[in-house]
């Protein structure tokens, strides 16, 4: 199993490991636990991560500088705030269309979406057949889940838990008590 | 007389911004490739940097100014478009309803949640950065490398065969030239103004069309003046050089 994981650049799902190794599902799960302990971030330059619905060997982030120096490549530039917002839309509200993303954010998001598609963090997952022109639906990819160190979409906190009810109430109060729209987006 | 523009008059202009430091041309390339968000680039500061680096005595000062003004205008347009609200109409007319404070509050609350989620994602992605997966890539399966003999034959035939000449029989021989009809117009103008209709009365459609092109050419050269008092009215050719 260790060898199978070593040669895969993508997370390997449990059933694929079962199929490749010939072990039972229980034995495979136990072996994964043992490997996870052996390749813990505290003791090893290689770590076993449970991401995107599977397991994958990765280098330990503590060794990232040495790896980047050896490969003579810089770490990819961090995403912009707009890109994070689009990813959040796709993660929590998706699959959704480009138009829906733009409506939620209040600004045109096509360019940001294109960039994320090129980075393989977003992907088109079907189409909205009920909408005129059947626009494509956007969803986050396994590469995104791996980049976020998440096993699945369930690993993220619920959307409603990220903003306190008091803060939401303040927003409503400020808007409904005055005709002026507060500048929340820029704050 | 100025030196001809090479199209890279801003090649030596470098900028120092919070979000980017380096050649201005690369900044433009990064923005166009969307590696850099346009609304994170302070355009006013950019213009200030250019104004500070400007040398009005330089031989290519005009080219530089023109190129910078053009690119800066494009950046402003791009930024304004990026920041402009989505114009897609709501299919069921929600826009009208969204104008109410209640609807706006709903939208803003939704956006606030997404914004907090984005901040959470930013932290999470930053924490998880630096993981590099196996660099091992699988070679193509041997079956994929097999190419059928027919495809090789077809490719070889295409590569080594001569191109098929396109059929031109329908074009017919060239029987008239612009120079020929320009000469005829010059002769016709010898006795004074003449109408285009009179000039082309005995011509077929091809010769009429070429005569019109010849008349335009002569007008451009300043030999004749084309007079047409009203659109689609009579077109008259008036000689400007009666002694020629």
The counted number of beta strands of chain B is 5
Shape of chain B: extended
Q: Quick one: which chains have the greatest interface?
A: A-B, 69 and 49 residues
The number of helical segments of chain A is: 9
Largest sheet of chain A: 3 strands, antiparallel
Strand arrangement, major sheet of chain A? 3-5-4
Q: Tell me the distance between the termini of chain B.
A: 34 Å
Secondary-structure element string of chain B: EEHHHHHHHHEHHEE
> Number of helix segments of chain B?
10
The poorly predicted ranges of chain A are: none
Order of helices and strands of chain A: HHHEEHHEHHEEHH
Distance between the termini of chain A: 50 Å
C-alpha Rg of chain A, in Å?
Answer: 21 Å
Structural class from helices and strands of chain B? Answer: mainly alpha
Outline the structure in words:
The complex is a heterodimer of chains A (187) and B (244). With 187 residues, chain A is α+β, with helices and mostly antiparallel strands. Chain A is 45% helix and 13% strand. In chain A, α5 packs across α7. The longest helix of chain A has 14 residues, at 25-38. The mean pLDDT of chain A is 87. With 244 residues, chain B is mainly alpha-helical. Among the domains of chain B are: 1-86 and 103-120, no CATH class; 174-239, Arc Repressor Mutant, subunit A. In chain B, strands 3-5-4 form a three-stranded antiparallel sheet. In chain B, β1 and β2 form a beta hairpin. In chain B, α8 packs across α10. The radius of gyration of chain B is 33 Å and the shape is extended. The chains are: A alpha+beta (187), B mainly alpha (244).
Topology of this structure?
The complex is a heterodimer of chains A (187) and B (244).
Chain A: H1 2-6, H2 14-21, H3 25-38, E1 46-51, E2 54-59, H4 64-71, H5 81-93, E3 96-97, H6 98-105, H7 110-118, E4 122-127, E5 136-140, H8 142-147, H9 165-177
Antiparallel strand pairs in A: 1-2, 3-5, 4-5
Helix pairs in contact in A: 5-7
Chain B: E1 14-16, E2 21-23, H1 24-32, H2 43-53, H3 61-83, H4 94-98, H5 101-128, H6 142-145, H7 149-160, H8 178-188, E3 194-195, H9 196-199, H10 205-221, E4 224-227, E5 236-239
Antiparallel strand pairs in B: 1-2, 3-5, 4-5
């Amino acid at each position: 199993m260790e060898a199978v994981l070593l040669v895969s650049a993508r997370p390997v799902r449990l059933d694929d490991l079962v199929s490749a190794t010939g072990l039972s599902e229980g034995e495979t799960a136990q072996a994964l636990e043992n490997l996870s302990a052996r390749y813990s971030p505290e003791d090893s330059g290689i770590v076993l991560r449970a991401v995107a619905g599977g397991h994958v060997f990765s280098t330990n982030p503590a060794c990232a500088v040495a790896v980047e120096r050896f490969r003579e490549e810089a770490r990819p530039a961090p995403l912009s705030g707009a890109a994070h917002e689009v990813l959040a839309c796709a993660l929590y509200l998706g699959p959704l269309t480009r138009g829906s993303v733009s409506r939620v954010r209040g600004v045109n998001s096509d360019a940001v979406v294109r960039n994320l598609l090129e980075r393989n963090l977003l992907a088109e997952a079907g189409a909205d057949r009920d909408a005129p022109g059947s626009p494509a639906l956007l969803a986050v990819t396994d590469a995104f889940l791996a980049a976020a160190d998440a096993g699945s979409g369930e690993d993220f906190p619920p959307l409603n838990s990220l903003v306190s009810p008091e803060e939401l109430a303040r927003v409503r109060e400020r808007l409904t008590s005055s005709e002026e729209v507060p500048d929340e987006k820029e704050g | 007389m100025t030196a001809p523009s090479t199209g890279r008059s801003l090649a030596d202009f470098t900028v120092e911004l919070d979000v980017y430091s380096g050649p201005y041309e690369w900044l433009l390339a990064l923005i166009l490739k969307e590696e850099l968000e346009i609304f994170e680039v302070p355009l006013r500061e950019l213009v200030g940097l250019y104004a500070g680096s400007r040398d009005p005595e330089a031989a290519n000062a005009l080219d530089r100014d023109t190129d910078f003004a053009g690119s800066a205008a494009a950046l402003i347009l791009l930024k304004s478009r990026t920041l402009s609200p989505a114009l897609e109409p709501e299919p069921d007319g929600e826009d009208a309803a969204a104008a109410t404070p209640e609807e706006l509050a709903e939208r803003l609350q939704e956006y606030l949640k997404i914004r907090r989620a984005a901040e959470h994602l930013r932290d999470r992605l930053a924490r998880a950065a630096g993981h590099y997966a196996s660099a091992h890539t699988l070679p193509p399966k041997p079956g994929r490398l097999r190419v059928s003999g027919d495809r090789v034959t077809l490719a070889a035939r295409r590569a080594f065969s001569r191109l098929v000449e396109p059929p031109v029989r329908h074009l017919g021989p060239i029987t008239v030239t612009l120079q020929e009809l320009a000469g005829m117009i010059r002769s016709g103008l010898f006795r004074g103004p003449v109408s285009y209709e009179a000039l082309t009365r005995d011509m077929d459609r091809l010769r009429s069309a070429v005569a019109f092109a010849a008349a335009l050419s002569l007008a451009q050269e300043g030999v004749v003046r084309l007079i047409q008092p009203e659109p689609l009215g009579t077109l008259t050719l008036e000689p400007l050089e009666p002694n020629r």
